[in-house]
Amino acid sequence: MTRPPRRVGQDPAHTAIGHRVLSARRAILGPMSAPPALDAPVTLVIGPENLLAERAISAVTRAARVTDPDADVSEVAGADLTAGALAEHVSPSLFATCRVLVVRGVQDVSETAAEALLALAASPADDVRVILVHPGGPKGKRMLDGLRAARVREIVCERLTRPDDQVAFVRSEVASAGGRIDEAAARRLVEAVGGDLRGLASAAAQLAADAEHGLVDDAVVGTYFEGRAEVKGWAVADRAVEGRTVDALEQLRWALETGTDPVLVTAALATAVRSLARLSGAPRGVRDADLARDLGVPPWKLRILRAQLRGWTPSGLVRAIRAVAAADLQVKGGGNDATLALTTAVVEIGAARAA
Fold this sequence. Notes:
Number of strands: 8
Largest sheet: 6 strands, parallel
Structural class: alpha/beta
Order of helices and strands: EHEHEHEHEHEHEHHEHHHHHHHH
Shape: elongated
């Protein structure tokens, strides 16, 4: 079957150099049915995030099996691949009309095997799908450049290090499992489990399956995962400014016991209190997008900040800011007991809100 020529502009995923790139955050987050666009002759799966890479491989394989349910799938390590072995893997099968080859660690292929892969990418065979897996980094750059020049399909599996991305990942996982979770609960799950995507995916699936009517809220997350992992400073800060002093002190204890630097806790407290102060003084009628930019927060966090602001007075915010400033001085060398300084600040923030 003759394939129609590809023209830059037909696919919105085209980049300036002409290759087609899918972000794993957009294409592979959560269990999914592979879109037909993933059924490309050659796919480069690149990046250090193993979970997303595995999902990308599965998605491309499923896309091939949409065309041929009996497609023959084989795997080989890049270091073991030779030009002859490649020819054997992609040759017609007696038992399947489509063959899928997964090459893991493609950065380790020999020079002759790399040339054979580039030739295959430049002139792909009918009924053959090749998935090349690369962990990212400079090794194998010449071959990567050649693959991109051949405009192979590329799926980038970068690590999700930003909290916003991890929260989005959790929400996508819960939704894919048939549940619902709001931003606050998703943030708490990230806080409790940490940034490991496999751990987050497993936790999200468990919560979606066990929660009543699939509704995962803050209380459900707390019941299952509270105290499971390192506590971040902003977890202490959120509870403190919400007036949940007892919870904030418990989180503070966990944070310090799991190695969180006291300086990071005071920084989180300062950010939380100052954000509320700035929000309280913001003019009315400002668009959320503009207000979020002025505050330096994502737009979704405005809802959380507005909820936290309820119960605060201007004088209470001033009192809280002073309490955090005093703790910051103590933690940074002005005192001998950082734990006492932070505990005092959390209690004082709670009192300032109550007043």
